[in-house]
Amino acid sequence: MSLASVSLAPMLSTLFFLTITGLSLTAILLAVQPLWKRHAHLVVAGSVTLAVCFLALPAAQATDVVIINGAGCQVTEEDAVGIFLHNDLYLRIDFTDSHWRFGLRNQGMKGLSLVDVGVQAAQFTTKQYIIKHAGLADMFVPYDDRSHTYYDMSFGNNRMDQIDAADLPAQNGALVFLRTSTGGHYVRDSVPKVAVECREVGVGWLCKEPGHHVRRRIHDVVIWAVYDAFNYDYIIQYTFHEDGGISFRDGATGYNLPGGTSKPHVHNPFWRVSTKLFNRTDNQALEFVHVEDSQGYIATDSELPIPTETSVDWNPLQFSSVMIQSATQTNDYGHLMGYEFLPGDRTGTGRFSQRSQDQEMWTQHDEYLTNDNPGEDGSGSGTNNWRYTWYSPDNYLLNYLNGQPLGGTGDGIVLWYISSVHHEPTDADNQQGSGNRTGITLIHWAGFDMEPHNLFDYNPLGGPPNCGQ
Ligand SMILES: [Cu+2]
After folding, report:
1. What does the pLDDT read at residue 463?
2. CA of 112 to the centre of ligand 1 (A)
3. pLDDT at 12
4. What is the number of domains present in the chain?
């Protein structure tokens, strides 16, 4: 934006607006200083031009800013210039062969969540809406000897920590400020709480035949935040893959429980993903299973309908997975399009108290499928307010499992996933010179992956026929 492109009329109306809202020019300039640091390329435009631009923005169009510009991997923050923003936070990712758009939110007690996720790759020429809301519902941490039992997301609202520039890699990283709605517009947090990184992750596919060697190296964009549960710091991480998949991970680090630094325990991040494929409600759920015959010689694969709200247990001997797909929307080959939910970094299965007074019955299964009925996203009243008022999942989740036909009511299908990682403190939890395991504990990851299933007509990363011969 140049000085010449800014007309006098919006400037005057903006100045009037600022005057009546009681904000001085000095305050505005102080407030935009963090922006200058974040967008060094803007600083060279000159402070006079910059001040005029920012002053004019409430009357100007939303402006997007490229925050990572790597080879094969670009990230853009939408509506990112000015103090008073038109919209809440949305980012776009542009890989070579695929594109994403999503929002990031800090709501209540549950840390960073994703909203309005859309993906574009292969045959699609526009972004396809897939997820309405995704994030953690809780993190349950029972100690083996039951001297302590914690719900690490019961400690109050807004427990995300500041992310520092030093947390980022030297290249292709960015800090992002979450936003708050106020007075008809949005303003940034005072500190950044989201890290964005573009990472080169290796080979996506390759093919080698004599005289024909081809390969495709790929990137991820990793979005992460830190949820502070006192001694533990949890990394909440969403990874957008170039092939159309998303990984959801929760990583426990920080330091072990004071007074119990050697006590084994299980971290159980409990996830909720509210799907709404193609922004339609005519979706259905299936369970994929691979079943061996009695001799283990021939196997049969099946996709079993899951007609009603229910619990699901992962079967590692059947490669089982939950699939959520459209009941009507097909790709060019007539296959219903959807996503498959698979364990990620899974080292075991948490199962806890079956005594009703402990309210841990929700831990008796790995996954649950429910309809997204009004209020059940945690923003309702009573126990439906679980995002802002703490309740055991027994008090809300189990009430949502009332046998309704999946997809029959509500606004999409919700997958609830319990991920678990057992933490047996070892001497790697020591600080050097002390045997008390009072050091910093290495990150313990747990989560799941969401992968496209017959969503694309062909390899979205441009694989040639065979080896391209
Ligand atoms: Cu631990």
Report:
1. 84
2. 20
3. 36
4. 2
Paired strand residues for 176: 194
Contact 397, 368 (CB under 8 A): yes
Ligand 1 geometric centre to CA of 293 (Å): 40
Distances (CA, A) of 315 to 276, 290, 343, 348: 26, 10, 10, 12
Which of the two residues, 450 and 57, has the higher pLDDT score?
Answer: 450
Containing domain of residue 317, as a range?
61-453
Q: Which CATH number is 262's domain given?
A: 2.70.98.20
Half-sphere exposure of 11 (CA within 13 A, CB side): 12
414 and 290 in a single domain? The answer is: yes
Shared domain for 103 and 230, answered yes or no, is: yes
What's the rounded Cα separation, in Å, for the pair 181 and 186? 4
**CA-based radius of gyration for the chain:** 24
One-letter identity of residue 12: L
Within a domain: 461: no
**131 and 36, same domain (yes or no):** no
* Distance from Cα 252 to the centre of ligand 1, integer Å: 6
What's the CA-to-centroid distance between 265 and ligand 1, angstroms?
6
Give the residue with greater pLDDT, 54 vs 65.
Answer: 65
Per DSSP bridges, beta strands 149-151 and 128-142 are antiparallel
The answer to whether 67 and 81 are in contact (CB under 8 A) is no
**Does 181 share its domain with 237?**
yes
Length of the chain measured in residues: 469
The alpha carbon of 263 and the centre of ligand 1 are apart by a number of angstroms equal to 9
Read off the pTM.
0.88
Do residues 334 and 371 touch, judged by C-beta distance below 8 A? no
User: 3-class SS at 184?
Assistant: coil
In a domain, 12, yes or no: yes
Q: Assess contact for 265 and 423: CB atoms under 8 A.
A: yes
